[in-house]
Amino acid sequence: MNILETNEVCKRYGDHTALDSVSLKIPEGIIFGLLGPNGAGKTTLIRIINQITAPDSGTVVFKGHNLQPDDIAHIGYMPEERGLYKKMKVGEQAVYLAQLKGLSKADAKRRLKMWFEKFEIGEWWNRPVEELSKGMQQKVQFITTVLHEPELLIFDEPFSGFDPINANLLKQEILELKKKGATIIFSTHNMASVEEICDNIALINKSRKILDGTVGDIRQQFKLNLFELSYIGDAEKVVKLLEPMAEVKEHEQGSINHISGEMKPGFTYNQLLQTLLPEVQITQFSDVLPNMNDIFIKAVQNSNTD
């Protein structure tokens, strides 16, 4: 079942089209990467899902029905622009924000104490927010976003400003939330994070969706028939055997030889292996898939020339 669908969603601000007929389907229980260059329309779409603004046309469906005002109780949103009150004490503000999400004061305090201990910020409970580092403020905002255990979580650049240790802590917590059943929309420019934690992605450029699917399927879609091969045997013989079917790009020779190359049109990996196996001992063979950063750049460039 899809927890969220957007159907032909459009949004304009004067002469500027922020979203142009964007349709997405987000299954329950996955981490969904919402990607795109700055100004592509990602934040506008997130604001529509959170009912901060409304689409000019199109519909948003949440759990099988058109999005309703009270659905916001089942959604947690951490925007890229952090919004804590600088003069309030950390604990006081966290309890206030939790109560806005429907928790009782006692329940809010109990849950917050657990999260503050987990994130090692308990000693800051009675300190004003302005005394916290940017990273600590982001921890507080993350906690207040997930505290009411919403079914759908939306994080806009959640790792921005975090050092590697705390970014990893946050990543593990996001994966744990998924394990507990939450669906997560994850907007970021960090393609390494996308490869690590996202199940599906959609790429928006210049207000339109230009790509969507599972991360695995998209990497297969953009692959260039590149391969890496390690073997023990006669290097010159291997080069001659490969010449009709592949272009050798690099060839390192030693006790174990390593080749990287590209298949020529009309030939398959099976043919390559069947040709080499009687002649050499193959110790490793892999299909080289493009990383999400390369795919992001290529897809955006291609859409800009359409």
Task: Describe this protein's structure.
The chain is of the alpha/beta class. It has 2 domains: 2-220, P-loop containing nucleotide triphosphate hydrolases (Rossmann fold, 3-Layer(aba) Sandwich); 224-288, ACT-like. Chain A, domain 2 (Alpha-Beta Plaits). It contains 10 helices and 14 strands. The strands form 3 sheets. It has a 6-stranded mixed β-sheet with strand order 6-7-8-3-9-10, sandwiched between helices. The protein has a 4-stranded antiparallel β-sheet with strand order 2-1-4-5, with helices on one face. Helix 2 (90-100) runs parallel beside helix 4 (134-146). The radius of gyration is 24 Å and the shape is elongated. The chain starts with a strand and ends with a helix.
Short structural description:
This protein is of the alpha/beta class and 306 residues long. It has helices spanning 42-49, 90-100, 105-118, 134-146, 164-179, 191-197, 215-221, 235-242, 269-276, 292-305; strands spanning 2-13, 16-27, 31-35, 57-62, 65-66, 75-78, 152-156, 183-187, 200-205, 208-214, 226-232, 246-252, 257-263, 281-288. It folds into 2 domains: 2-220, P-loop containing nucleotide triphosphate hydrolases (Rossmann fold), CATH 3.40.50; 224-288, ACT-like. Chain A, domain 2 (Alpha-Beta Plaits, 2-Layer Sandwich).
